[in-house]
Amino acid sequence: MSFLSATLSRVKPSPTIAVTNKAQELKAAGKDVIGLGAGEPDFDTPENIKEAAKRAIDEGKTKYTAVDGIAELKQAICAKFKRDNNLDYKPSQVTVGTGGKQVLYNALMATLNPGDEVIIPAPYWVSYPDMVLLAGGEPVIAAASIQTGYKLTADQLEAAITPKTKWLIFNSPSNPTGAGYSHAELKELTDVLMRHPHVWVMTDDMYEHLRYGDFEFCTPAEVEPRLYDRTLTINGVSKAYAMTGWRIGYAAGPENVIGAIRKIQSQSTSNPCSISQWAAVEALNGTQDFIAENNKMFQRRRDMVVDMLNAAEGISCPVPDGAFYVYPSIAGCIGKTSPAGVKIENDEIFATALLEETGVAVVFGAAFGLSPNFRVSYATSDEALKEACTRIQTFCASLT
């Protein structure tokens, strides 16, 4: 009998972290590697937020706080939900965790029983299915397609719901595709959910402010107010505020669910970093002007990457609405052979050959539940993106 928990056999390590680590190892060994796997902005945290953290240190705000967040941060979160999403929450309906990932995990641990099903649209963020499995639930994958812009349809959602369904995890704009749901598209999904009152909605709105062109963000409880009492709306400061390492995520929802999440957190990590919490107060309450400026740079990078990848042989790359990812199809490359003699049988082999033969690190599509694809994060410099895409073009042209 293994000393380790049998639960671990149900899950695997994060592929995105694995790709990032592999790229860093190759760089450390002197290889010319361009890493396009990390899901974090390359911008520095804004000065006003850093100054708020310094003040917190100087003022001695370095002690334990309430388990799931200081009152000032919960008030700022309530104000944010009202300002940005027209959602009314009280501080007692808010929880703050060590990143959005912990909030998601806590919520699943607090609500899932063995056999409970969680619908996860694919492509999905790599951690969703494994967190469901760790919590004892069963992920039900509802695969979208490039034909629908990688977005779940109402018919697909309807078909995935069973009497065992407890949650739908909903992410827009999406990691890994950048696809965003319009108000009309989301209304079609919420209409389905209204016919199934036993199904709750767990939103991952982490990329809310990273949107481009005329795409307008909306979240399920905003689109369908009758879902308010069975929606957990999750967000955080990591992406829009370039605060990935500060590790602050938050959620709002029914008080009984928030209380259950608090109980889980009280016996695991306890409070998030006190200094990070005060920085997050400033992020949410302070100036938001830099978001639009950063988005201009992200959109310029997006357009360049999409154009260059669509110019590569065998690749088709849709234009995303938000986040900082593209999710091109490599259907035209499958079955071909690389210059090193590697037969490209699937997207994992493609990504491995691309890294080993060109030094470009991307995450293969199977990690996100939909193949044959790969994910590029364009949250890096224009120069690195241009060089990486040029290498991808050369690699694809060399396939025979």
UniProtKB/TrEMBL annotation:
Supply the alphabetized keyword list: Aminotransferase, Pyridoxal phosphate, Transferase
InterPro entries with a match to the protein in the record:
Aminotransferase_I/II_large, AspAT/PAT-like, NHTrfase_class1_PyrdxlP-BS, PyrdxlP-dep_Trfase, PyrdxlP-dep_Trfase_major, PyrdxlP-dep_Trfase_small
Q: Which residues form a coiled coil?
A: none
What is the required cofactor set for this protein? pyridoxal 5'-phosphate
What EC number is given for this enzyme?
2.6.1.-
| CDD domains attached to this UniProt entry | AAT_like
Q: Which PROSITE patterns does the UniProt entry name for this protein?
A: AA_TRANSFER_CLASS_1 (PS00105)
**The UniProt record lists the keyword DNA-binding:** no
Q: Which reaction does it catalyse?
A: L-aspartate + 2-oxoglutarate = oxaloacetate + L-glutamate
Entry's SUPFAM superfamilies? PLP-dependent transferases
Cross-referenced PANTHER family, in alphabetical order?
A: ASPARTATE AMINOTRANSFERASE (PTHR46383)
Q: What is this protein called?
A: Aminotransferase
